[in-house]
Write a structure and sequence with these properties.
Elements (H helix, E strand, L loop, with lengths): L11 E12 L2 E10 L5 E12 L1 H18 L4 E6 L2 H8 L10 H11 L4 E6 L6 H15 L2
Parallel strand pairs: 1-4, 4-5
Antiparallel strand pairs: 1-2, 2-3
Length: about 140
């Protein structure tokens, strides 16, 4: 007898994001890990995003993570981002001084409207490895094509 697979409840997600650019600007990749409240991986991915700066890559990781969480039906998200600059700008503690980042911040804020509750903080040091690995692997895969 087949076991019935009941979909997990993804109303609340914890998001870990990181990005890297090898050069500034340089080849860039993003890494995203979405976890349920118990710490189980719901989804994770790394993507090569072309040549850009580290800050643009960090915003890109956050944007992709929020889109994915919204697609999974999350109603609340706890974001742990790898960039202090992104955390400070999204939380309103720091103004955007680089003009190219302003549209990215606007997109993040637009995506955050999909959630009933959200928070953002710096990714703890012990949680950086997996999303960072995903970002670096995406660059390596692109180089090996």
């Amino acid at each position: 007898m087949a076991e019935l697979q009941v979909p997990r409840d993804h109303r609340s997600l914890v998001i870990h994001t990181a990005a890297t650019a090898r050069g500034n600007p340089g080849e860039a990749g993003i890494g995203v890990v979405l976890l349920d409240p118990q710490g189980h991986v719901v989804e994770e991915f790394g993507r090569f995003i072309g040549t850009t700066t580290e800050h643009v890559a960090e915003y890109s990781a956050l944007i992709e993570a929020l889109r994915t969480a919204a697609g999974l039906g999350a109603k609340e998200v706890q974001v742990h981002a790898g960039s202090e600059l992104v955390v400070r700008q999204v939380s309103g503690a720091q103004e955007v001084r680089q003009g190219g980042l302003q549209p990215l911040l606007v997109e993040v804020r637009r995506l955050l409207l999909h959630f009933q509750r959200w928070s953002i903080q710096l990714l703890p040091h012990d949680a950086v490895k997996r999303p960072d690995d995903l970002a670096n692997m995406s660059i390596d895969r692109q180089r090996n094509k």
